[in-house]
Write a structure and sequence with these properties.
single chain; alpha+beta; Immunoglobulin-like; four-stranded antiparallel beta sheet; 5 helices; 51% helix; 24% strand
Length: 274
Amino acid sequence: MSARPIEIQQANTEILGRFASDLNVTNHGKPPSVEWLKRVPSPGCVSWESHKNQPSQMTEEGRIVNWGQIIAGIDADNILSALALLVSVVVGFVAYFQTHNANEAAKDANNHAEEANRIAAESRDAATRANELAGNANQISENANLISQRALSASRDQTVYEWTAEYDAHMPALTIRNQCGLTANDVHVLVRLKDQVIAEGHADSLPPIGQIILDGTLIRQEIVEEGEAGRRANLVDIPGADLRIGIVWTSELGVRRSLESQQRFSDYKEQRDL
């Protein structure tokens, strides 16, 4: 009487478990190898070859066990599992190292990119500073050329300008004249009395013998007050006003010039050289 396939499989599994337990004890707890299994006799059999040649064997429970198929199955499963585990470990290590190398390469690339950005920023700043320095150099060069031109013009311009000032108490007025034979341009006149500005005038162009007439009211007032103070003090000095006259102008050759003169005027009409 033969057992059904499912009963044979269950019987094989149970006997395999018992057999594996006995083998662990016999082999000092180490997993059995194929060669070792060949040398160990199974229950009711003399050797591996006897199990291999016998298709099946009846157990005490009345079940049929094929030892050759069981041991062969154990050997095939172990080999396949070991190979699968080995492949998995190798693939895992390869993937790990590849990932690690990729991460390191990415970090290096980021570091290189940051360094490149830093160098680019420094280059941009250096270019900006260079442009600023070049602009300053150009400005300095232009100023130097202008100063040089002015110095050359001043050295060539040997013209002497003569100026006179005349006070007329009847008007009253202070007249500034250009007594030179050349035209004076952009003429500014400033008159001070006791460190206070009492008159000023301007002319864009003042030809030879040209004149600027300034208001002399404050000059007349100063002369009158000084005369009254002298009479009270029984002084015999002629009253007058001490004026400081400043003139700034540009010559025909473009040279800027100036003069300042201290003069005293009284009620008498008179012309003074500045």
